[in-house]
Write the structure tokens for this entry.
Amino acid sequence: MTKKRRILFAIGSLGGGGAERVLLDQLAKLNRELFSPLLYLVSHSGSLLSELPEDVPVFAFDLRNTPPRWNWPGRIHRRLVADLARVIREQQVDLVFDHTFHMTLIAGPAAAQRKTPRISLIVCDPENDFTNNERRFRFFKKQLLIQAYQSAEAVVAVSEGVRRAAIAYYGLNPASVQTIYNPIGLERIDVLYDQGDLQLEPGKFHVVCCGRLHPQKGFAYLIEAAEKLVYDQGLTDLRFHILGEGPSRQELEQQIQQKCLSDYVLLEGFQSNPFQYYREAQLFCLPSLYEGFGLVLAEAMACHIPVLATDCPSGPAEILADGEFGRLVPPGNAKALADQLADAVAFYESWQSTVPAARRHVEQMFDDAAGMRQWEALFERVCAK
């Protein structure tokens, strides 16, 4: 019998973001006859922890180590590298698969210490993601990332836009970076879509958004658009439902209150089943300033709801085939958002006409079974080297 490959998936935590959801689906659907998955976390936290497959052992830095009494620059990073290298050795890992650049900073040197093959997944446009999320020691961290990506056996981007951006930002060889789109678990979505007894206020036009409450997601511009629609155009039947949690909650709450939009813009918090909102709402909106792929956009398309997204770097234009399966507006433009939202209210039948084709597009382009076959073939190829 062929020995199963032991693959250590690595990510910071299991919060409710798109990268974490994709990793969770990969763990659930990985072929157990060929592979044995393990999971490494920096922090044993996140709303998706409860959904972990029972057969996946978890190694969490914060549970395995006590906080140091004294800290100085680089100390935590060195401890993380040492701990991950120890897990790789103790668990006889055949392949490390790191998600997000935060984890690549740790997995790169840890896997190099153990001479273990590694695959890095880039989930967002690095020029926006890295520069907006790393404030300290940015130059040195970028050099570490360049080394880590160059030393990986494979680098994978979640969209063509992310691939091109990563090649340019990190100076990578184009031949060493490939694209594998995030797979969409349609079976899971369809089951959850029919569950729940949510009933949104009848007679209103409901717009649903989903994402981490973070400036990246552009919710501040959506609130500005809501103000224009409600108070300038008199569209008082509009209701905006923003699903998610994050560091910008207080700032968004203040913006909503200052603009007297508390009856129109609702921060609904994290939802374990966002798809019942998609079932009940009239429109899905993704107002992001930048994305990697835009998983929630593809999921909404699978839920038979018209979609509006920003043409941000990167992902939405690829998912929507440059506007064939939904509308695109410039990012960071509240007026453009308001104009298209008003158009959706006035000409809703036209917006609905793209829904069946959008669902078929998701089924064809982002099928999770086909996506997992791509990943498994890559895992085998890298391990075989």
